[in-house]
Specification:
The chain contains eight helices and no strands. By secondary structure, it is mainly alpha-helical. It has two domains: 33 residues; 148 residues, Lysozyme, CATH 1.10.530.
């Protein structure tokens, strides 16, 4: 009887020790799951473009999982999954000379272009995060038409009205990831 009780006490102590370690070390585990690579570049470019660095990190995580070599089946490239056409347009806007689409695999260039583009979307859509993120994924022309035609009112509560399932999911995933990044990297 005493051996059984001793076994339960040892089991309880070991369980409480693991629970304590999990709770106190949870942030380290979460940092492994939600890394913040290229932090200096993201912070610098986000600051230049008046964006929250953790939001940019969330976009990078959702778009590429921080894989600088990522390429979508549609041809979007790099960390922030920039389409070459968008890259050329932004490079022209910011005066980036001799830009080539292969530079979209360079983290510095990709984040510079991606943050400038995201900030431009914020400006166009009056600082509405949901709309800017939807435009980042689905294209500003599509989003403009959805808003003008009343398909979507631009609100978080009506995301289900976004015609593109991929764009709806993108906005939700970035928002969720952004909340996690704010918890982890306070």
């Amino acid at each position: 009887m005493k051996i059984a009780l001793l076994g339960r006490i040892i089991y309880l102590v070991v369980f409480l020790l693991f629970l304590y370690l999990f709770i106190t070390q949870a942030n380290y585990i979460l940092r492994f799951v939600y890394p913040f690579h290229y932090r200096d570049i993201i912070a610098m470019e986000a600051h230049k473009n008046e964006l929250e660095p953790l939001l940019v990190a969330a976009v990078v995580w959702v778009e590429s999982s921080f894989n600088k070599e990522a390429e979508s089946f549609k041809g979007a490239r790099g960390l922030m999954q920039i389409m070459p056409e968008t890259g050329f347009w932004v490079a022209e806007q910011i005066g980036l000379e001799d830009f080539t689409e292969d530079q979209l695999y360079d983290p510095q260039i990709n984040i510079m272009i991606g943050t400038w583009y995201l900030r431009d979307l914020y400006r166009q859509f009056d600082g509405n995060t949901c709309v800017a993120l939807a435009a980042y994924n689905g294209g500003r022309g599509h989003v403009r038409r959805w808003l003008q035609n009343g398909l979507w009112d631009g609100s978080r509560d009506r995301l289900e009205n976004i015609p593109f399932a991929e764009t709806r999911l993108f906005v939700l995933r970035v928002e969720q990831t952004y909340r996690r990044y704010k918890q982890i990297y306070k």
